[in-house]
Every structure is written in structure tokens, then in C-alpha cells.
Write a structure and sequence with these properties.
The complex is a heterodimer.
Chain A lengths: L6 H18 L3 H7 L4 H9 L18 H14 L1 H20 L2 H13 L4 E4 L15 E5 L2 E12 L6 E7 L9 E7 L5 E6 L10 E12 L3 E2 L5 H37 L1 E2 L2 E2 L4 H30 L6 H26 L10 H11 L6 H21 L1
Parallel strand pairs in A: 1-4
Antiparallel strand pairs in A: 2-3, 3-7, 4-5, 5-8, 6-7, 9-10
Helix pairs in contact in A: 1-4, 4-5, 4-7, 4-8, 5-6, 5-7, 7-8, 7-9, 7-10, 8-9, 9-10, 9-11
Chain B lengths: L1 E6 L1 E3 L20 E3 L1 H16 L4 E7 L5 H9 L4 E5 L9 H18 L5 E5 L10 H9 L3 E12 L2 E8 L2 E8 L2 E5 L11 H9 L4 E2 L40 H14 L4
Parallel strand pairs in B: 1-4, 1-6, 4-5, 5-11, 6-10, 7-10
Antiparallel strand pairs in B: 2-3, 7-8, 8-9
Helix pairs in contact in B: 2-5, 3-4
Classes of the chains: A alpha+beta, B alpha/beta.
Chain lengths: 388, 267
């Protein structure tokens, strides 16, 4: 389907595709197996300027927006969704700074994130505060011109590899949700240590770490937004970042379809290619329909976000994330089925897509939470309409 | 440091077909791309530019109007300025006339931009396959040259240290600049063109120079200026499949193989 991409957007697609097909596919099994960090691929992404596609030119980026990020992440994820997280996870760390950072904060951090010189990360999650971020226990206490951080954050994507972290601490535990504040924390700050590294089902090329804070002192200027406004920072970030997860899911789905289709065209049984069987053809068609519908929803949403004109995109971005990740799960399960026995094997790439797909239904808000938010927005909109 | 890279746009395949009637290469309808060996030359220039502060890379090609695409691709991959030498009078040039023409263009680049320190070529093209043009340019310009360079070990003011790949190892050569090297594919892994590079490439203004612009001697260019005469060229006959030695065990196969080789009086 032709989505009327501009020349710049076409260049982003071609560049990311070239990296996925020529630099990622060859090494993805290795990084999936070893869970090592793919610095060699990160270097290629840096040299190709991919880290800057969504960042304004005045901060060293290429001046695109959410749509450009979506295009890059989708192509990279066709190769490996874990490796694509180097970019998508960095964007998740950069968005709070782009949305709520002061001019000084933007000037200090965005150029390095745009060039990929330093990677970014974002974590709100704690052991007891997952979907319910209001249960945040980690604290930030103002002492003179510094905040003192204490506590533990978990499941930090790009953990240890990243150097700039957008994190959430409670500055006033008695105020619950209204006591949470967002901060920029740099790797290497004394008192900021990396705890356990998680061993995961999928996206294994992407490191997931526990972050431990013990009397970690950061400058007061590293507060993002206002004190107590952290939850708003997180929600506004998710509004624009969830299409990134959707893009990752879409790339996984398309990558799995491409592999399974190619295999079904060459695999012969009963004297003919298995793709000649209607059972296979219908699977193929259903996968293609779902993927194209998901892409249309995602691209349109990302284009609207890039264009701007509205403060919040909660409903639309939740729809993208939810639908694309559900499609990714269904498509990858079918892709394994289309390949039969070999589809289940580790030396064939299709099972990895299925393992990688699962996380997209879970992180940046489970799909259950997405549905809650979509319904909540619909009810609010209806109530507003009713008042008129 | 001013580096000049010489490139050629060639068919985007190693299986170039020859027209049996005319004996020339069939180019019509073929997708064109930068000669693969030249991609290593561009990458090496871009890598040296990153290593040596204040460096600039120029890229030049002699070719028909569509060769401009190859120059834009070279800009996307890190070259700063591109120059297109194009004139019907250049058509049909052999390696002697081509190297003459390119060196005249290089003299002009040195004049309009600044004197060059290093010229980098791919070791050969995938259509002509001669490997003459790089060393030919060096001869015309009367500068040192090293062919088959597999590594640039050091770049210093006025000196280049390189490895020249030989059949039985490599030579380490030091060349005073300005000099010319032609590079083999082992020298590097060409990068994927950067997005900023691609956007620059779209905007790049590429001068087009004809024979008069580069002050070329008309008796030395194109088919007329080429001393080489291609009397005949043809596609090599396809290789026949080899002989297969069957046997139940490795031992049996080995015995049969030895017997067959003896029969053929090869051992």
C-alpha cells in the first residue's frame, strides 16, 4: 500500500531497511542466544543518523516526529525487535525531555540522544508498581540544591547500555499519584547502580535491568516538569511513544509473514509447493489483511501526532499499540504454524518473532490497560458531548 | 587532506552480457549502480576523512548523464563534492583514453577546489575488469601509485603507509603524497549511507564538464583516441558439470578417484 511518504520519509525507510536486512539479520540469532548487547549494530545506526529521525533539528535531529520514528522502528523490527529497542527505548527516554524539558535540559541531553552518542532509557515500573504507577515507592527528597534518590526501579529497557535515564520517584509519598515526579538521571552518578539483569522470553538482544538507588544525589535542575507532575509526564510520553511499540509489533508481524511466505513458496509436500494449498493461502491472506489494517491505523495516528494540534492522543495511541501488538501475536503464531516443524526450531528465524511479539502486548501499558484507557476516553468524550 | 575518489557507474550485476554482434557490453535495460569495487574506495576516503581532521573528499566520474546518480550516492556515503565529466566525445574510451580524461578532470578539480593529496580508485570495474585505469591516472599525473591496497596503515602529513596485497602475503609501502591507491574489497566494509548524507546528496550541485572544460586533447579521448582495438569478444562457454565419483564409503570413493586420475594420466 502506498502511504504517500515524502522523500525524507522514504530515505528513512530505505536506510533502516538496509540496516535491518544487511546488518541485523546476519547477527540477530547470535544476540538472541547470548543476550549480549549489539554495539556493532548500534554503531551502524549511529552512522546512518537513525537516532535523530524524530528529534527537532535545533537539537541535532533530522526534524521529523512520531511518524518518522515509527517508520524507522518498523523496518528495524522486521530484522530484530530486540535490536530495534536501542532506538525505540532511547526515544522513550527522550520524549519526556522533549515534552517537558526546559531549554537547558533539551540543549544538554537531546543532541547526544539524536546522534546516538548516548542512549536513553525510561522506567516508571517498580516491583509493587506496575500498571498501578501510583504505588511508586522510590523517593526523591530535596536537600539544598540536590534531590536525593532512594529505592529500586525494575524492568528498565536499555538498562546499563543507556546513559540518560528518564525516571520517576515520589517526592511526596503522602500525596500518592500527585506526589510522583520525573527526573533525568545520568549513568555513573554515585549511588546509582545496576541490579539484576532479567532473562527474557524474547527481545533478548535488549538488556532489561533493575536500577538501584542509594542516596544518589542529582542536581535540582534535573527535575522534569514540576514536582508532583510526574504522572502527567509519563502519560503524555506514552501518548506519543505507544505508536513506537505499535511500530515494533508491526515490524515483527511483517518480518514473520515475509519469512513464512518465502518458506511456504519453496517447501514442497505432496508434489507441490505448500503455498498452493488453500489452507495456507487463507492464513497468508488473513495475516496480510491484519497487518495492512494495523499499518493504516498506526500511520494515520503517527501522522496526526507529528502534525500536532491536540494536547493528548491517549485514545488513538492506545488503539495503535493494542491493535498492532494483538496482530503481531496472532500473525507470529500463524507464521510458526505455516512453517510446520522447522518453524518451531531455533535455527529458523520464525519462532523468535513469536517470542518477541509477546512483550508488545505487555509493556508501555498492558493491552488490558490500553483498553481501559480507550473506553475511559470514549466515556469522557460522550460525557462532554452530553453536556453541550 | 584533499582526497579524490574516481568512480564508475556500471551494471548492477557481475554477470555482464556481451552483444555477440558488436562485441560491446549490453548496457540497455540494465540496472546501474556504483561499481562495487569503487564502494570500497568511497568508504576508505570517508574513513580517512574521519581520521584526519580538516579533510575533504571529492568524487569524480566520467560517464553518460545518468552517471550523476552514482555521484549522488557517493555524496550520500560521505563525499563532499562531486564532479561529472560527460561528453559524447568521451564515448567508447579504452583504459588509456579513460585514464587520460580522468586525470585532466583531476587537474581541473585541483584548480577549482584545492590541490589533492590522495586519489583512491577501486581495483577494477565489474564490467571492464582491467584494473588499468587507477595506475594509468597515476602515470599521467606522474605520481606514485600502489595497486591492490588492502589496508591504509597510516596517513601522515606528506606520507601514506599502505599494505599492497600480493599472492603470497603483502608488501608494506610508503608513498609520498600526492599519490594514488587502488583498493581491494578486503580493505573495509562500506557503510550504509547516512540520512544526513542522503539529504545532502539530493541538494548537491554537481558541475558537468565536457572535453573543452577539462582542456582535453581531442586526439586522446573517446573511441578515436583509444589505441586499443577490440577485435573480438564473446561470452565464455558455460562450464560443463564435473564428473561425480560415487561409492558407498569414503575409502571406495578415494580408490575410484585415484584410479580415474591415473587413467587420465594426471597422477
Amino acid at each position: 500500500m502506498d502511504y504517500d511518504l515524502t522523500e525524507e520519509q522514504q530515505a528513512i525507510v530505505e536506510t533502516a531497511r538496509s540496516i535491518a536486512q544487511n546488518k541485523i539479520k546476519q547477527v540477530r540469532a547470535h544476540y538472541d542466544q547470548t543476550e549480549e548487547y549489539p554495539w556493532e549494530v548500534i554503531e551502524e545506526m549511529r552512522k546512518a543518523d537513525l537516532f535523530g529521525v524524530y528529534i527537532p533539528t535545533e537539537y541535532g535531529g533530522l526534524g521529523g516526529g512520531a511518524f518518522e520514528l515509527v517508520l524507522a522502528v518498523e523496518e528495524l523490527s522486521k530484522g530484530c525487535a530486540g535490536i530495534a529497542l536501542a532506538l525505540a527505548g532511547t526515544a522513550l527516554g527522550a520524549y519526556p525531555i522533549m515534552l517537558y524539558g526546559t531549554e537547558e535540559q533539551k540543549k544538554k541531553y537531546l543532541p547526544d540522544l539524536a546522534s546516538g552518542k548516548r542512549l536513553g532509557a525510561f522506567t516508571i515500573t517498580e516491583a509493587e508498581a506496575g500498571s498501578d504507577a501510583t504505588a511508586t515507592k522510590a523517593t526523591a527528597r530535596l536537600e539544598g540544591d540536590q534531590y536525593v534518590l532512594n529505592g529500586t526501579k525494575v524492568y528498565c529497557t536499555n538498562g546499563k547500555a543507556a546513559e540518560i535515564y528518564s525516571l520517576f520517584f515520589s517526592t511526596n509519598p503522602s500525596r500518592g499519584a500527585r506526589g510522583i515526579s520525573a527526573f533525568i538521571v545520568e549513568k555513573g552518578t554515585p549511588g546509582f547502580e545496576f541490579g539484576r539483569k532479567e532473562e527474557k522470553m524474547g527481545i533478548r538482544a535488549s538488556p532489561t535491568y533493575q536500577l538501584d538507588f542509594k542516596d544518589c544525589r542529582i542536581p535540582k535542575e534535573n527535575l522534569l516538569g514540576r514536582e508532583g507532575g510526574g504522572l502527567l509526564v509519563a502519560q503524555a510520553t506514552f501518548d506519543v511513544s505507544r505508536p513506537g511499540v505499535a511500530a515494533q509489533a508491526l515490524g515483527i508481524a511483517q518480518g514473520a509473514l515475509d519469512e513464512a511466505f518465502a518458506y511456504a513458496r519453496t517447501r514442497r509436500q505432496f508434489g507441490q509447493p505448500v503455498i498452493s494449498f488453500q489452507a495456507m493461502q487463507h492464513k497468508l491472506a488473513n495475516m496480510a489483511i491484519e497487518i495492512e489494517a494495523a499499518r493504516a491505523l498506526l500511520y494515520q495516528t503517527a501522522k496526526l501526532i507529528t502534525r500536532g494540534g491536540k494536547d493528548r492522543w491517549t485514545k488513538e495511541s492506545a488503539m495503535c499499540k493494542c491493535f498492532c501488538s494483538d496482530v503481531a501475536m496472532r500473525v507470529t503464531v500463524e507464521a510458526v504454524q505455516m512453517c510446520g516443524g522447522i518453524g518451531y526450531m531455533r535455527d529458523f528465524p520464525v519462532e523468535k518473532y513469536m517470542r518477541d511479539a509477546k512483550i508488545t502486548q505487555i509493556y508501555e501499558g498492558t493491552n488490558e490497560i490500553q483498553r481501559n484507557e480507550i473506553a475511559m476516553m470514549m466515556i469522557k468524550e460522550a460525557a462532554r458531548e452530553g453536556k453541550k | 587532506m584533499h582526497i579524490i575518489v574516481c568512480i564508475k557507474q556500471t551494471p548492477a550485476t557481475a554477470n555482464v552480457q556481451i552483444d555477440p554482434k558488436t562485441g560491446t557490453l549490453k548496457r540497455e535495460g540494465m540496472a546501474a549502480a556504483i561499481n562495487p569495487f569503487d564502494e570500497y574506495a568511497i568508504e576508505e576516503a570517508a574513513a580517512i576523512k574521519e581520521r584526519v581532521p580538516g579533510s575533504t573528499v571529492s568524487v569524480v566520474t566520467m560517464g553518460p548523464p545518468q552517471a550523476e546518480e552514482a555521484l549522488r550516492e557517493a555524496v550520500a556515503r560521505g563525499c563532499d563534492d562531486a564532479y561529472h565529466v560527460t561528453d559524447r566525445a568521451f564515448a567508447g574510451a579504452d583504459t588509456w583514453a579513460t585514464s587520460y580524461t580522468l586525470q585532466m578532470a583531476i587537474r581541473k578539480i585541483a584548480e577549482v577546489k584545492k590541490p589533492f593529496d590522495l586519489i583512491i580508485c577501486g581495483k577494477q570495474t565489474n564490467d571492464g575488469d582491467t584494473g588499468h585505469v587507477g595506475p594509468g591516472i597515476a602515470a599521467w599525473l606522474d605520481i606514485p601509485n600502489a595497486a591492490y591496497v588492502g589496508k591504509v596503515e597510516d596517513v601522515k602529513e606528506g606520507l601514506l603507509r599502505v599494505r599492497r596485497m600480493m599472492e603470497d602475503g603483502y608488501d608494506v609501502l610508503e608513498l609520498p603524497t600526492p599519490c594514488l591507491i587502488s583498493v581491494v574489497k578486503e580493505i573495509n566494509t562500506p557503510r550504509i549511507a547516512s540520512l544526513k548524507g542522503k539529504l545532502n546528496a539530493k541538494k548537491a550541485v554537481i558541475p558537468k564538464w565536457n572535453a573543452d572544460d577539462i582542456k582535453a586533447d581531442k586526439s586522446k579521448i573517446g573511441l578515436g583516441g583509444s589505441p586499443t582495438i577490440v577485435s573480438k569478444s564473446y561470452n565464455p562457454p558455460p562450464r560443463k558439470g564435473g564428473e561425480k565419483i560415487d561409492g558407498a564409503t569414503a575409502e571406495e570413493k578415494a580408490k575410484k578417484l585415484v584410479a580415474r586420475l591415473r587413467e587420465m594420466k594426471l597422477i
